[in-house]
Amino acid sequence: MPTIAIVGAGPGLGLPIAREFGSHGYDVALIARNPTKLARLEDALRRDGVTAAAFPADVTDKDGLSEALADVTAHFGSIDVLEYSPAASGAVDIRNVTPTDVAAQIDHHLYGAMTATDAVLPAMLAAGAGTLLFTTGITSVTPWPEYGDVSIGAAALRNWSVNLGHGLAGTGVTVAHVAIGVWIGTSPPEGFGHLPATEIARRFYTLHQNQESTELIIS
Questions:
Q1: Closest by CA position to 178, among listed 138, 120, 123
Q2: Which of 36, 54, 106, 165 is the most exposed place for a label (fewest CB within 10 A)?
Q3: What angle in degrees, to the nearest 10, is found between the helix axes of 112-127 and 148-167?
Q4: Residue 214's domain spans which residues?
Q5: Residue-wise over 178-198: b if at least 16 C-beta within 10 A, else e?
């Protein structure tokens, strides 16, 4: 069975993506910091008939994240799709943001994604196939002053991932950046557009199927 590894797996986006890929025959590896929350996601997927396993790791712990992805490969045999979407936290207004704030967001968004990619890309290149999906909020494209530090970190991930897609052209490995500018689910705050999580998850699977490095802005 092919395998998707979801880094930053949570109930809002990671679980719907896991269900979507699982419905197409994928095994699912769930990676996030909190073992208890991961266990709940794993149980939910198994109740849906999806083969899933949890691998706790923090994206800012480079050695721990690399080891978790190595454990995924040992457990499932391969990682065919990597989806990276750890939730951002600790937003600081652009008027007050400090270099320390920005460094933390770069570590969370960019360096975590680079670490995860370093762990899976060599095998993908050897196989001549693979998909790398990197997810940010819309602030990676349209900065929001109240999310000053997050906007910078997300934009760094966007820049790197789009450039990586260009660099991997012709290798069989494709890269897609997804910027989500809608409320996921129902009951959005006033003024926000929204989409069902299942619809967003379907778009991720379509990106994988298309096998073309690209960028998708959902707004």
A1: 138
A2: 36
A3: 20
A4: 3-218
A5: bbbbeebeeeeeeeeeebebe
Show the tokens assigned to 72: 């995924």
Residue 101, token pair as written in the block = 């704030």
Residue with token string 């937003």: 91
How far apart are alpha carbons 172 and 105 in whole angstroms? 30
CB atoms within 10 A of CB 36: 8
Residue 172: DSSP 8-state: S
Residue 89: the pLDDT is: 78
For 9-98, where are the alpha helices, taking DSSP H only? 14-23, 35-47, 62-76
Q: How many residues does the chain have?
A: 219
Give the count of domains, the chain. Answer: 1
Taking the chain (219 residues) in consecutive chunks of 10 residues, what is each chunk's mean pLDDT? Answer: 97 96 98 97 98 97 98 98 90 93 95 99 98 94 88 96 97 96 66 77 95 87
Sheet containing 214-218: order of strands: 52-54, 27-31, 3-7, 81-84, 130-137, 173-180, 214-218
Distance CA 188, CA 182 (A): 9
Q: Domain of 34: which CATH number? A: 3.40.50.720
CB-based contacts of 148, cutoff 8 Å, min separation 6? 91, 92, 93, 94, 95, 96, 97, 101
